[in-house]
């Protein structure tokens, strides 16, 4: 549930920020009559996203075991692609997102009210569909089917509260730092989803090695222990993974995390001291 909460918080805050920027722009420019079109676009995007998530669940339930495992593996890999693209895109766009959204909304206003609704719809639907796929992929294998729903609901609710407080200027947070550190955590979550996708392929019989284990930590991490459940829920860490699962986790998690944090590490490196100027030659 922790991993799904983080997904809901991160994706939900992006959606909330987008909506708050659009609303604030209309309010400050004395165009409140257009707010209903923004909310119409947001509502349509939310409805389609929820419908898409439901379709994923219903469609997978009609498949055979092997087909369902393959379907879940594909969904996991698509989710990994989405989350990887999203965290790198958000790291780059966090500072100039507001100006870009205002510019697009101003262009839409010149076209007409339906263009305003369409612009709001397009701004939200991408995040909504990403959230649906990430939720479906991260929720696979949950022991309690209510936990994923609770996690995503709490994450989205927290994001809405934070977004409203930001809009009302009640709190100030450094969004660049927020998206950097939540992005780093999501890299580890995505590594777990990638590992789970490989496991699904092994379960379906498309990939061998389901009984070839890399290590066995079941004695140190009993499945019913709270810390084992936390590791499994957050990073999909299992005490007895296969060799291929372990290779998949390391092959994705380490290089992507290094690439994501590399700009931050470079900023923290102390600048090289400037060489002292050579004394002037005063000899005759």
From TrEMBL:
Q: Which InterPro entries does this one have?
A: FTR1/Fip1/EfeU
Topology in membrane: Multi-pass membrane protein
Transmembrane domains' residue ranges: 6-27, 34-53, 73-90, 111-129, 149-167, 179-198, 246-265
Keyword ATP-binding on entry = no
Record localization: Membrane
One Pfam family cited in the UniProt record for this chain: FTR1
Q: Which UniProt keywords apply?
A: Membrane, Transmembrane, Transmembrane helix
Q: Give the main location.
A: membrane
Q: Which family does it belong to?
A: Belongs to the oxidase-dependent Fe transporter (OFeT) (TC 9.A.10.1) family.
Record's protein name: FTR1 family protein
């Amino acid at each position: 549930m922790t991993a799904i909460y983080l997904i809901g918080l991160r994706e939900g805050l992006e959606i909330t920020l987008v909506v708050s920027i659009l609303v604030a722009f209309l309010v400050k420019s004395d165009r409140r009559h257009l707010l209903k079109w923004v909310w119409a676009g947001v509502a349509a995007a939310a409805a389609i996203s929820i419908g898409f998530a439901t379709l994923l669940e219903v469609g997978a339930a009609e498949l055979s075991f092997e087909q369902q495992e393959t379907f879940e593996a594909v969904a996991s890999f698509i989710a990994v692609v989405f989350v990887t693209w999203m965290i790198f895109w958000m790291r780059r766009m966090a500072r100039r997102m507001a100006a870009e959204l205002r510019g697009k909304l101003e262009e839409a206003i010149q076209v007409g009210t339906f263009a305003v609704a369409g612009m709001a719809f397009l701004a939200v639907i991408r995040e909504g569909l990403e959230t649906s796929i990430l939720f479906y992929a991260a929720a696979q294998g949950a022991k309690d089917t209510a936990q994923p729903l609770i996690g995503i609901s709490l994450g989205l609710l927290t994001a809405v509260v934070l977004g409203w407080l930001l809009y009302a200027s009640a709190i100030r947070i450094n969004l660049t730092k927020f998206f950097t550190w939540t992005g780093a955590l999501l890299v580890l979550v995505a590594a777990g989803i990638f590992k789970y996708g490989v496991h699904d392929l092994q379960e379906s019989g498309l990939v061998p090695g389901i009984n070839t284990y890399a290590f066995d930590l079941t004695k140190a991490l009993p499945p019913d222990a709270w810390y084992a459940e936390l590791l499994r829920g957050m990073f999909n860490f299992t005490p007895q993974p296969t060799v291929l699962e372990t290779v998949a986790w390391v092959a994705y998690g380490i290089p992507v995390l290094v690439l994501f944090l590399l700009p931050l590490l470079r900023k923290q490196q102390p600048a090289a001291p400037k060489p002292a100027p050579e004394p002037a030659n005063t000899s005759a």
